[in-house]
Write a structure and sequence with these properties.
Length: about 450
């Protein structure tokens, strides 16, 4: 079904494909509140965050709709005199495996550029959070995308996921998730000699120099780690603070973090919800215990007695006095827990930032413009912010270095990822010499 739908899709005029993707964006906007409430129930994220993510998915559809009729080839002036042109062609069927922390957002982030490039998409959402991906598939049909072009398979990774990875129709894979699963996906793709784009985890360094605007940097550091209850691949989970500022910064951040409102995700006043599932809650709790056992000083917001009993609540937590070699500084926690690490100077800050296998994101807070550019150039990460954090956009390439994966899932780079190039050689000589890489000069 997917392969047949892809042939029908690529057979449409490119502008028509764009109109249908634009219509899909309009349907997401029309159903925005229902989708946000479904995502809230799906994940436990605050409703105001879910509303923002739904709006971003509509924006993605409209952005990629505009690219459908702008995927162009090029000509190459080869010395033999042939006319050589390059076409960009879709792979056919793309398998998109998405995570539980932002299911609708990553559904749109991965499916829409693949569709704009002319592919069919089979979506395999996390077994924890399939609901909004299923809704997206229904809206794709309503937008008149060919039946079967967007398919959603709700099932376990070890069964449905493995079967889809082995399906001969799948010509390319995009995966968002943890490094260990990503390695297995990459191995499966390598065994079949098909390409994959991997967006894996992070242990991103959020670097604060003593000359930073302190109130703004404190607020930014909170946003970097506590937004979405820390369940973000780009979370600023290593807070590197210049030693002369470190204690004051950590104290101010702890005081401010205690004011974050935890509560019912459907309440518009809620700023942070529970961790998504029991397994993740246990993982976060175990790593906090490990941090304390390694000598970290635990600063956590007190639990609100008004919170519902039995929920997977984790208050905003700071582990101070951590060394970069500690487990909590090297292993992805994926919860509202930050490891605060002091540094002396710029050289040490960069060295600490790069002393990890991950390389997804990072940030620097400083008033020194030259330092900002030097640090941005020196830190190995796919995305880096200066005096800000967590801003991404569909038009800008996103992806990681090292253990954070490879390939880029947005911007024009994504169109290159979801297409393959075909070189076409056209003989222009009056009497061509066949079977050779070139014809003699003047021949």
């Amino acid at each position: 079904g997917a392969a047949r739908a892809q042939r029908a899709w690529i057979g449409l005029p490119a502008a028509e494909r764009g109109r249908r993707l634009w219509a899909l964006g309009g349907l997401v906007r029309r159903e925005a509140e229902a989708l946000a409430r479904l995502e809230c129930a799906n994940t436990g994220k605050p409703i105001r965050d879910c509303r923002g993510e739904v709006a971003r998915v509509a924006e993605m559809a409209e952005y990629w709709a505009g690219w459908c009729d702008k995927i162009e080839g090029r000509t190459i002036p080869v010395p033999s005199g042939h006319l050589v042109y390059v076409r960009r062609e879709p792979f056919g069927v793309v398998l998109a495996i998405t995570p539980w922390n932002a299911p609708l957002f990553t559904c749109g982030w991965n499916a829409l550029p693949a569709l704009a490039a002319g592919n069919a998409v089979v979506l395999k959402p996390s077994e924890y959070t399939p609901l909004t991906s299923l809704a997206f598939g229904r809206l794709a049909l309503e937008a008149c995308l060919p039946e079967g072009l967007v398919q959603v398979v709700a099932g376990l990774g070890g069964t449905s996921g493995e079967a889809l990875l082995a399906a001969p129709e799948v010509a390319m894979v995009t995966f968002v998730g943890g490094p260990s699963t990503g390695a297995r996906v990459a191995a499966a793709c390598a065994a079949r000699t098909i390409p994959c784009v991997l967006e894996l985890g992070g242990k991103s360094a959020n670097i604060v120099f003593a000359d930073a605007d302190l109130p703004v940097a404190v607020q930014g550091a909170q946003q970097a780690i506590f937004a979405g209850s820390g369940q973000s691949c780009v979370a600023g989970s290593r807070l590197l603070v210049q030693r002369s500022l470190h204690d004051r910064f950590v104290e101010q951040m702890a005081a401010a973090s205690a004011q974050i409102r935890l509560g019912d995700p459907l309440d518009a006043a809620t700023e942070a919800g529970p961790v998504c599932n029991a397994r993740q809650h246990a993982h976060v709790a175990a790593l906090v215990e490990a941090g304390v056992a390694e000598g970290a000083r635990l600063l956590a917001a007190p639990r609100d007695p008004g919170l519902p009993a039995g929920g997977f609540w984790v208050p905003p937590t700071i582990l101070a006095g951590v060394t970069n070699a500690a487990r909590v500084a090297q292993e992805e926690i994926f919860g509202p827990v930050v490891a605060a690490i002091p540094f002396e100077d710029e050289a040490e800050a960069v060295a600490l930032a790069n002393a990890t296998g991950f390389g997804l994101a990072g940030a620097v807070w400083t008033r020194d413009l030259g330092r900002a550019h030097r640090v941005a150039a020196a830190v190995r990460a796919g995305t880096f912010w200066v005096n800000g954090y967590r801003t991404i956009h569909v038009s800008v390439p996103f992806g990681g270095f090292g253990a954070s994966g490879h390939g880029r899932s947005s911007g024009i780079e994504a169109l290159n990822a979801y297409t393959q190039s075909k070189a076409v050689w056209v003989e222009t000589a009056a009497a061509p010499v066949l079977g050779f890489g070139h014809r003699p000069a003047g021949g």
